[in-house]
Amino acid sequence: MERGQFTDHQTIRLRANGEEVEREVEVRKLLADFIREDLGLTATHLGCEHGVCGACTVNLNGESVRSCLLFAVQADGGELLTVEGLAKDGQMHPLQQAFWDHHALQ
Questions:
Q1: CB distance 79 to 101 below 8 Å
Q2: Three-state SS across the chain?
Q3: What DSSP designation does 91 have?
Q4: What's the predicted TM-score (pTM) here?
Q5: CA dihedral 36, 40, 43, 46 (to 10 degrees)
Q6: Which CATH superfamily is domain 9-101 in?
Q7: Short-list 86, 88, 81, 80, CA closest to 99
Q8: Model confidence over 4-24: pLDDT tens digits?
Q9: What CA–CA distance (Å, rounded) separates 71 from 68?
C-alpha cells in the first residue's frame, strides 16, 4: 500500500482464551462485535454501548476493559480473556458460578 492510502480492513493477531487467532477485520469494528461475530463468543454482551453497564467487560492484557469502547484493531497482538475462557477442566470458575447462581443474564 502506498503512503497516504486508506484501508478499511486490517489483519489482526491475538490470543483469545488461550487460542491463537488471526482475522481480517474492518478497522472501525468494535472489539465487542469482533468477539461475538468473528470469534463466536457470545457471553460478551452489548448493553448500553457507552461503557457504563459493564456487560461487555473482558480482560485484555491483564486489565478489565469495556469492549464496546475499543476497536478490534486495538487488541492486535494482545491477550484476550472472556468469561468463556474462565472454566478449567470442565469446572466453572467462581465468577461463572456466581453468574449462574444469581441469574446474571444481561
A1: no
A2: CCCCCCCCEEEEEEEECCEEEEEEEECCCEHHHHHHHHCCCCCCCCCCCCCCCCCCEEEECCEEEECCCCEHHHHCCCEEECHHHHCECCECCHHHHHHHHCCCCC
A3: B
A4: 0.83
A5: 10
A6: Beta-grasp domain (3.10.20.30)
A7: 86
A8: 667 899 999 999 999 999 999
A9: 8
